[in-house]
Automatic annotation (TrEMBL):
Keywords: Amino-acid biosynthesis, Aromatic amino acid biosynthesis, Lyase, Pyridoxal phosphate, Tryptophan biosynthesis. One of its GO terms (cellular component) is cytoplasm. It catalyses: (1S,2R)-1-C-(indol-3-yl)glycerol 3-phosphate + L-serine = D-glyceraldehyde 3-phosphate + L-tryptophan + H2O. This is Tryptophan synthase beta chain. Pathway: Amino-acid biosynthesis; L-tryptophan biosynthesis; L-tryptophan from chorismate: step 5/5. The gene is trpB. GO terms for molecular function: tryptophan synthase activity.
Length: 380
């Protein structure tokens, strides 16, 4: 069925949004294969983001752990993570659709910054919705969004965090859909967002596959952290048809207790979240549960519907890493390789370092989804 990955996905939204989603689907399907659009995207990828990002062989880490460890360096992208691959693609799409304004929701502020950046780049009017509690916790990102010229709308409803910001952004979109595009930050939300965001992030896997083919071999396993799941889908797309094991690592947080983790697949059940059917962490009576992760980017109760599908078919193995192990891996990569990873990406690194039984003597590609400058000042 259109917009579904097996039993997951779909478009469960207020009727007023259906025409906008259908328009988006139409335009995206035309533009993604349009030579002018793709050349434009390619040019910005190269000259603005700094692509292609290299695959780096981490020799000192590999030596210590007895595993050949390769890192896909998305941390080297402009603004410091993979998020810009998606925001630049969607902002360009906005421009081609003739819309003048973009909106976004943000939790930790990373997606807000990536959106404010491309708004400045393309001269688009930009409003970012952020929970008041989150804004107080993420002052540097708030300042950066303002510096980039975005309007920041603080949301004082509910828990004043990401899900309230998402609801506020949805309300704005319903009202202003004629001239406004809503840039969702991961492979989540109603169709066509999961498919579209995956398309813009698939550059990660395409480049990584080419790097390995140049070296003359493939990795035995590919490992990525999973919040909504965009960096993971992006790298997996390059290896789904290859004989490589794929691992998606969820935030195990402090414990398996409700409220202590963000394991949508590990501890969740299927339900509807933000316009699609997917796995999400729920309370006993079916409400969206509180979640926790030391990594703000993984602190999300759901996961993209394509991941739910890849879990159901068994093609990708989903597992967890606890906060403390992610923080150890964060320090280990800094000291052993001189690379400070995002604490999100550190979950993927920790999984490889902590599971020698799975990875010893093998070649493993880890997606280093972002850099850790934002994390290095925190007391972690
Ligand atoms: C936002 C973020 C993530 C989580 O988002 P996904 O959509 O799961 O990729 C992971 N790593 C970094 C560095 C991030 O900024």
């Amino acid at each position: 069925m259109k917009g579904f990955f097996g039993d997951f996905g779909g478009m469960f939204v207020p009727e007023t949004l259906v025409p906008a989603l259908e328009q988006l689907e139409r335009e995206f399907n035309i533009l993604k294969d349009d030579p002018v659009f793709t050349a434009d995207l390619q040019r910005y990828s190269t000259t603005y983001i700094g692509r292609p990002s290299p695959v780096y062989y981490a020799s000192r880490l590999s030596e210590k752990y007895g595993t050949e460890i390769y890192l896909k360096r998305e941390d080297l992208n402009h603004t410091g993570s993979h998020k810009i691959n998606n925001t630049i693609g969607q902002a360009l799409l906005t421009r081609y659709m003739g819309k003048k304004r973009i909106i976004a929701e943000t939790g930790a502020g990373q997606h807000g910054v990536a959106t404010a950046t491309v708004a400045a780049l393309f001269g688009l009017d930009c409003t970012v919705y952020m929970g008041a509690v989150d804004a107080a916790r993420q002052k540097p990102n708030v300042d950066r969004m303002k510096l980039l010229g975005a309007k920041l709308e603080l949301v004082h409803d509910g828990s004043k965090t990401l899900k309230d910001a998402t609801n506020a952004a949805m309300r704005d979109w319903v009202k202003n859909v004629e001239d406004t595009h809503y840039i969702i930050g991961s492979v989540i939300g109603p169709h066509p967002f999961p498919e579209m965001v995956a398309h813009f992030q698939s550059v990660i896997g395409r480049e990584a596959r080419a790097s390995f083919e140049e070296m003359g071999f493939l990795p035995d396993a590919v490992v990525a952290c999973v919040g909504g799941g965009s960096n993971a889908i992006g790298i997996f797309k390059g290896f789904l048809d290859a004989p490589c094991e794929l691992y998606g690592i969820e935030a195990g947080g402090l414990s398996d207790n409700e409220g202590d983790h963000a394991m949508a697949i590990g501890k969740g059940r299927a339900g509807i979240l933000h316009g699609c059917i997917t796995y999400l962490v729920q309370t006993a009576d079916g409400q969206v549960a509180d979640v926790h992760s030391v990594a703000a980017g993984l602190d999300y109760p759901g996961i993209g519907p394509e991941h739910s599908y890849l879990h159901s078919t068994g093609r990708v193995i989903y597992d967890k890493v606890r906060d403390e192990d992610a923080v150890s891996a964060f320090r280990e990569l800094a000291r052993r390789e001189g690379i400070v990873p995002a604490v999100e990406s550190s979950h993927a690194i920790a999984y490889v370092l902590k599971n020698p039984d799975k990875f010893n003597g093998r070649r493993v590609l880890i997606n280093l989804s972002g850099r850790g400058d934002k994390d290095s000042e925190r007391d972690i």
